Amino acid sequence: MECPTQKPKRSGRKLRHAERAAPLPINPAPPGPEGGHYRPLSTEDMARIYDTALRLLDELGMGQVPDRLKRDLLAAGAQTLGDDRVSFPQEMVRQAVDTAAKSFTLYGRDPARDITVGGQAVYFGTGGAAVTTLDLDTGLYRPSTLADLHDFTRLQDTLTNVAWFTRCCIATDVPDMYDLDVNTAYALLRNTTKPVATAFTVAEHVDPLVRMFDIAAGGPGKFAERPFVKAHISPVISPMRYGEDAVDVVYKCIEHNIPVSCITAAQAGATAPATLAGFLAQSLAETLASLVMVNVLSPGYPMVFSNWPLVVDLRTGAFAGGSGETAVLNAASAQLSNWLGLPSGVACSMTDAKAIDAQYGVEKGLTSLAAALAGGNLIYESSGMTSALLGASFEAFILDDEMHAMTYRALRGIEVTEDNLGFEAICNSVLGDGHFLGSPATYAAMERDYHYPKLADRAQPKVWEDEGAQDAWQRANAAARAILADHHPNYLTPEQDSKIKDMFTILH
């Protein structure tokens, strides 16, 4: 192609301004881009870690195996060891990896909100069980309430980059465990149609809650056809043993076709080795023990391989959720899970900061970007969590949603095509106006390639001063207040709501 010799006609100034002011018709930073660009482990490293995990399960095995599970595991090829431990032969583990689900759909009650988990696709969501909430009025922490859970759920319902919602706080004003599980589930159903997740305190709570889910789904058995609730379960307790109550919940979830995130949450130097490689080997073995269990009970069952490496400050024993070690360990965990072909779940953005400050921004940005670049499919804890998971914040949800968009944009990368290399556009601008501000190519790129944050301040200092000199926390506080004032969804029909309230004690 040769440069044109005739100067192009200038386009109208008013038209250009109108075009640039119009809403963008596409999202330049959509959820679900591919990760896998950051590889803290070499292929040889991953093979050695996996081999060590296989040896641990074979030679050390798992302890405190509940009787029912032990019978099922032994029937599938496991073996007994001394001290009442159960060994998983290496071929048994490899078979579980081979037969495990490699991808599956997390359903929303609104099908447009479904997401597919697996491969290298990256989605940010929530998690956590914060017992305190950062109050919008005082800026200080107070015990989390059921009203907070409803508010967090309806707030995130408006946030594009939160792909699914797990209850992020515990309603400390609901002391009865059954009422807590019931009212947590109700808050999710009432306030969002995204895929959601919750926890069941004990297996006996699963059956009645499935009846609630069936009501929301349209009738008996309907929930199992499109299960829009995922269960968070920790059936393995570090180091290398099962937890009976959580194992019972797994059995019940499989009975009702509830997808599971089987979460391993070892802590380096406390319940797992302080060496990072040793930690990864033990944590991988423990998560594989969950995978073997699930696939013995139901081969190919939808399970998120949720290997969450957690770090403690070895000087004090305090949780260090925002550390550089947390960043690299969760990235390595995602890399290992993806290498095995398993739908991966990791944790990040678990900042230790109490305030929405510089520490908050550094720790959130570093850990979330590392996990995403490594290709973590579901990145938990990444929205709204503060204070080393002890706190949840409305302002944090707003700020984190914007951070996720920037991360998605970074993952999307740069598309190189003949058109966007811009040879003709360069020629036209150089021989025409001498700049690129009004060209069709610039307008097209503005829509396609650039993310425009809603909250970040890009004004000149004088404009910022004239508009009140607000910091990010203040802007996020105002945005959260506006959403909570205006967004009052009720995704249950009056008939559904009435049936649920006739069957359960609803406290909100």
Describe the structure.
The protein has helices at 13-21, 43-60, 67-75, 90-99, 146-156, 177-191, 206-217, 222-225, 244-255, 276-297, 324-339, 358-373, 394-412, 423-431, 440-449, 461-466, 472-486, 494-503; strands spanning 79-81, 85-87, 103-106, 115-118, 123-124, 132-134, 141-143, 165-166, 196-198, 229-233, 236-237, 241-242, 260-264, 267-268, 303-307, 310-311, 344-347, 378-380, 385-386, 391-393. It has 18 helices and 20 strands. Helix 12 packs across helix 13. It starts with 12 loop residues before the first helix and ends in a 5-residue tail after the last helix. An eight-stranded parallel β-sheet has the order 5-18-17-15-13-10-9-8. A four-stranded mixed β-sheet has the order 7-6-20-19. It has a two-stranded antiparallel sheet with strand order 1-2. It is an alpha/beta fold and 508 residues long. It has a domain at 97-411: Trimethylamine methyltransferase-like (TIM Barrel), CATH 3.20.20.480. The mean pLDDT is 93. A hairpin with a 3-residue loop joins strand 11 (236-237) and strand 12.
Under CATH at level 1, the class of the domain at 97-411 stands as Alpha Beta
Oligomer: single chain
Widest sheet: strand order? 5-18-17-15-13-10-9-8
Structural class: alpha/beta
Q: CATH homologous superfamily of the domain at 97-411, by name?
A: Trimethylamine methyltransferase-like
CATH architecture of the domain at 97-411: Alpha-Beta Barrel
Secondary structure: helix percent? 40-55%
If you average the pLDDT, what whole number results? Answer: 93
Largest sheet: 8 strands, parallel
State Rg: 25 Å
How many DSSP-defined strands? 20
What proportion of the residues form beta strands (DSSP E)?
5-15%
Shape: globular
